From TrEMBL:
SMART domains: Alpha-L-AF_C
Pfam families, sorted: Alpha-L-AF_C, ASD1_dom
Assigned EC number: 3.2.1.55
Protein family per UniProt: Belongs to the glycosyl hydrolase 51 family.
One example GO MF annotation: alpha-L-arabinofuranosidase activity
Protein's name according to its UniProt entry: non-reducing end alpha-L-arabinofuranosidase
Signal sequence annotation: 1-24
Catalyzed reaction equations: Hydrolysis of terminal non-reducing alpha-L-arabinofuranoside residues in alpha-L-arabinosides
GO BP, sorted A to Z: L-arabinose metabolic process
Domain Alpha-L-arabinofuranosidase C-terminal: 465-652
Coiled coil: none
Amino acid sequence: MKKKLFVFSAVFILSILCFSTSYAQTKVFKVQANQIKAEIQPTMWGIFFEDINMGADGGIYAELVKNRSFEFYTPLMGWTVSGKSVKEGDVLVLNRKEINTANPRYIQVNVNNADKGSISLTNEGFRGMGIKKGLRYDFSVMYRQKTAHLKLHLELVNPKGEIIGTGLLIPTETGSDWHKQAVSFNATATEQKAKLNIWFEGNGMIDLDMISLFPEDTWKRRPGGMRADMIQLLADMKPGFIRFPGGCIVEGRDLANRYQWKKTIGPIEQRQLIMNRWNTEFANKQTPDYFQTFGLGFFEYFQLAEDIGAEPLPILNAGMACQFNSAEVVALDELDPYVQDALDLIEFANGGVNTRWGKVRADMGHPKPFNLKMMGVGNENWGPQYLERLRIFTKAIKAKYPNIKLVNSSGTDPNGDRFDYLNTALRKMNADLIDEHYYRRPEWFLENANRYDNYPRNGSKIFAGEYAAQSDKTVSVNNKNNWKTAMSEAAFMTGLERNADVVSMASYAPLFAHVDGWQWTPDLIWVDNLRSYGTTDYQVQKLFSTNKGTQEVPILLDNKAVEGKDGFYACAALDKATNEIILKVVNTSAKAQNADFVIDGAKLKAKANITVLTNENLEQVNSFDNPSAVSPKIQEVDLRNQKLQFELKPYSLNVIRIKKA
């Protein structure tokens, strides 16, 4: 009997100890829901698009034909001429630069009694053409011919040489003028790496330009539009803004290679192609066939922003080429055309249809203004030469458009002499927004979650314009979008939102990468010719963007801001639109931890919705084969006495939404 009593007592004591230990380990988070610290800007979480990693041509711009107007440095790059009857001179590249500087080249094809196999042109696409079974494909071409005796047979061909779609175009117009003609046909099979083959039948000579092929399933079914699955991933994020067109392509390798927005609008055939400055930037990732055709131009960017409910943030050249390349600058007394481009862009976006550039916008199909509110001057520029030019831009823009907010560069790094010099000078200039960039190891992001705690609360606001945790090191081809990088970014982002009175905007970079044509990694979204998926980092960005709230309130652990103690990082917000309290809590430790969330200053309903993003393997990545390896899981939890009790899983981001009563 005594032995049994001893055993029972030992078990009881052990259970008490376990209960006490468990209780002692419970973390108590206090949310002060009635103490509003700051308004969270609708632009808090956005996206940054740059044409890097085949982001535009071969990416969101759905054109399947590479070098459609023969303007690459090698005019027939991407094309193959073949056939049993081909003779020297049957296919010529002609140049009409004096007549058409925007699109000088075209090809001339001479056909004599041709049939299948006699003479053909084959286009390889952008690392192949992604073709879907049953989908309609729209072919078009600009042509000129003296007599109408030719037929153009169109074939989609898979790598085995099998035909998976056919069409026929018979040019009908003759004379000295150029004409455009189109035909559509359906694919009979799905293929990642198809090619387009055009073979000629008949007799005669024909000039060809702007040879194009688009799928019918573009975003919003717009002819000549964007790739729908890629844009849907952006729309699903509900971004507050979209920054475009870059990035270093704004600057160019030299000033001749800079981005000029006026050359990207109007009829497609009048937009002047240039080399993409990323094509030879990295010796180990050469992409000599990387150009910008500008089928995706400034009109389309503004339209995209409108489509997905984001504020447009265009970035313009400040009269400086990339300082990592040529560091070429425009003389100060020759800067006027660059400044005028900025003024004209605002008129293009916002001007009435009776203004010069407002009329251009209206003629392109959008008479209603785009309501541009902000603009960046310079991308990642630095030094006194930047400040000299920035002052001239700022004075001219503010004089004519005082309500336009201007984004200014703080250089390439978040610290050091370069940063300190610009940060000090820009604050003295009362800059609207200072753009800070951080490409660092995950440890840096964890250590800097409190970066903005001691920033000035008045004056210039912060745009965290480019950031991404590097699993290896910056510019390394070995960087991965693993859960460790994404979780560290989530921790850092709680610090951004927790300082919403300082930080107005933030965006991850780069946005897109094509698996067969990338120059830089990590990236937010990866694609091939048919598929796309959001990385672990994408899942974090999406959760923050779709749960940002409208007002920041304190969340405390041991009466202090939650910024690393015991591996926790957290922020809290109210959402006036849904009458909810939103908590974002990151547990970066390797163990599960019990937590009580005590809400002061608000009456609550009885249930909370909790979204958890977690994986116990910090090296885990999403992929084409397993796109949901790290993806959010949603559950409903009961509240008791104004308190939420919940176990925070190891290595997790937890988004908690609680309805106010």
